[in-house]
Amino acid sequence: MNGKHKILLIEDDKESADEYLEDASTYMAAYDMLFEIPPHDISSIVELIRKHNVIAVVVDERLRQRSEADYLGIDVLNYLKNAMTGLPVVILTEYDQDSILRKVPREQLFRKIDLSKDAGKKYHFDILKDLIKQYQKKQNKIKPQKKVISKINKSNVKEIARLHFLMDGSIEKIIWFRNSKRKEIQLLEVSRTALPTQSVEAFLISANKEVDIDLLVADVTPQEWKSIQSKKIELPSGWNFKKFTSFDREELMGKE
User: Fold this and answer.
1) What global pTM score does this model have?
2) How far apart are CA 35 and CA 97, in angstroms?
């Protein structure tokens, strides 16, 4: 073990992966780069992250050509935004004009053609280093406050909301939909950086050593939250407006 932090590269083209790893060995020498072919199930990426204690993920946008993956890089970004809150995720693409990719924050989207030039490589890896430093700073801030959460009650859900607010500064509000018939905690996160879909798609986040309860988390924009409140966008079955608790960032965290 060399003690270096690890970055996970998910790419279906081994030749492209080898080129990226070679560049990373120059510009990211302080880190270990791990390469994985995209697994069939997107949830398996979380298992890889936890297995290797990964501190950032770099993912190709088009993953279906040479793998069994049934998802894209943008799906990985959206999934990990909920499953691994705050973890840096960067997309590599040759298709930056896709309408959905235009909504991805600039620091999380890089054209492969720009990585063919030294200036582009330096810019990309400098941004990646900065994202990692920001993530580490937030992680260090919350580590002393962590405790194992194993029961569903308002106090514990409030603690989960606080942790998510700490790790992701774009989340404005978290709504807990209580449902005694389900074993998961149902959370709707209203985020400025959520990609608009005009729907509510909840991702399952499996229990882990910090939160020993499964979570169902959906990510929506502030405008979509207004549409949900006016019932223009439907909630999933079992998410009931008659049984919900709202946690606002400023009320819970104060003026950070």
Assistant:
1) 0.75
2) 26
